[in-house]
Amino acid sequence: MLFPHLLTSLATTSLLGFATAQTCWKNTTCSGPIDTAFPGSWETNIYAPSSRTVSPKSVLSLATREVISSYPGPSLLSSNGSTYVFDFGIEVGGLVTVKYSTTGPGSLGLAFTEAKTYIGQWSDSSNGKFAGPDGALYSNFTSAGNYSYTMPDLSLRGGFRYLSLFLLTNGSTSLNIQDISLNIGFAPTWSNLRAYQGYFHCSDETLNKIWYSGAYTLQTNAVPVGTGRHVPFLTTGWANNGTLGPGDTIIVDGAKRDRAVWPGDMGIAVPSSFVSVGDLDSVKNALQVMYNYQNSDGSFPEAGPPLLQQGSDTYHMWSMIGTYNYVLYSNDTTFLAQNWAKYLKAMNYIYGKVGTSGLLNVTGIRDWARWQQGFNNSEANIILYHTLNTGADLATWVGDTTNLSSTYIARATTLKTAIQTYCYDSAYGAFKDNATATSLHPQDANSMALLFGITSANSTQAQSISSNLLKNWTPIGAETPELPGNISPFISSFEIQGHLTIGQTDRALELIRRSWGWYLTNPNGSESTVIEGYLTNGSFGYRSSRGYSYDTSYVSHSHGWSSGPTSALTNFILGLSVTSPAGGTWKLAPQFGDLTSAEGGFVTSLGKYRAQWIKSGKEYYTLNVQTPESTTGALVLPSWAGKVLKVDGKTVSKGRGKAVGGGEQVTLTVKGGNHTVVMG
């Protein structure tokens, strides 16, 4: 029997229970799911609160930043400058209401921060790298009495964990805090923030928490479309009243900032969102805004409105790859058809930059934060290779009859040869940063070369690249050579998937634990979300080591581009993934590593997909998979010594697979439904 411990609860749970006639956030009507798709004990790892209205968990001393009581705790601010810090325990965001009483005139100040490092009477920086300080909000009162202050909508604070409340007065006024509440502003169409449509659980509790921290990050990055960062940036304070795009909800790059659509996130955030929270509406709206603001030459903006930053060839291509990811998970061919002419224009724009060498000549040099970009940059060329291959699939899915799919595949093949010819450094054993003479071997290009198939998974070249990537590792993550002194969980998200693509499971799991595990257990961080980036010395001043002059508190502690472990653990470790739109075809290709069990699942329009594997003794594994009967799947079974292999009770003989790692890897095609595999 498949998953016997869950069958009872699943029987009473609808596939997708949607709310009706209910307001979730301001004037936004609920349209998200109201029930979790896979109830179980793993729900204890969900960081999302059970209500859209929450209160702090504890009270901290400003001087020591240590907990002095649980909330409500101390409530009296008795002198000018007196302060209490209220800890919500996790990353939150929205509009705070404070009820209080006073004995005379003065002001109540409110300051916010994501990290404990920056607690104080000034908020951490959200307004802009080169703008003035965010400062604080103030509730002014002229006499003794009872007061209630709610932050104005434009002052919505997208991401914070700590709220500092402090008193300003010229006299003997004291202030008593009676109540603090927060109206959650993210995931605006969800009445039940815990109604996840995917789940993951394995024998390593650290990995479980990391998976759910990525999921929760993506929830905090789904925001109301009228709450983008104000542009132009303010000289003091902040305002989140910019229009971001169509619909009611849209996925942005960060909870606190930048609060804009940045397509570079699409390669990581979209797959992770699909396997966890299951929110594709926010993705669709984010992609649509890029098509709506496509430039006349076919290029996409680097960022959506109101910022509308331009000049990035890589982010242009990430919009195109994001389109592929969205259609793969949703089968929304209507969206694809409506934007197909613009997609073709975008492809013509970027492929028009391919020169006589066969390589892309990068002229839109803005990128994810790497220190250099331009000419025949290897990262950009590898992204183009992936764009062409995914474009070939999109052409098929949209019903193109002009042979575009074959054209794109042929172009990708030619490009791959050029990348290998001009960008691979055989003496070192990895791709260099450019076709020029350079000693830089970047993390981004080499990770993507493994993930996107520039090099064969079983080749000596692939293993050399994987080994050379280890040279960048520090005790708290992988330093990126193209941004020295910095650790980028965004680029490391590609690295872990690159190692997994070529079967280096232990390396991927070690990097996840080393980098994401370090941040999640860092008492100065959010302890619930994934960070934009940090320095190799363990401080949060991402990019400050490379000459950027700005407040280091500007770094986002809830950034969806860093959520790679969430999809990697589902797609590679559990091994469950969809291979055609909405999961019409799927794959189960587990990687065991040092784990003894893993299970998980997700939902598409065709139904529920879930899998489980358990290790028995030293050598034996039992795998279960359950998918809609209308689908077709591939069981890609790991290298085994050939002692036992049974599928649904029937023995599979040796010699049907290929030799991999001293054993035999077997691929079997099965119809959807329930299947059990015993191997060892």
UniProtKB/TrEMBL annotation:
Pfam families, A to Z: Bac_rhamnosid6H (PF17389), Bac_rhamnosid_C (PF17390)
Swiss-Prot/TrEMBL GO biological process terms: carbohydrate metabolic process
Domain of life per record: Eukaryota
Domain Alpha-L-rhamnosidase six-hairpin glycosidase: 250-463
Record keywords: Signal
Signal peptide extent: 1-21
Domain Alpha-L-rhamnosidase C-terminal: residue ranges: 575-646
SUPFAM superfamilies: Six-hairpin glycosidases
GO terms assigned for molecular function: catalytic activity
Protein name per Swiss-Prot or TrEMBL: Putative alpha-l-rhamnosidase protein-1
Protein's organism: Coleophoma cylindrospora
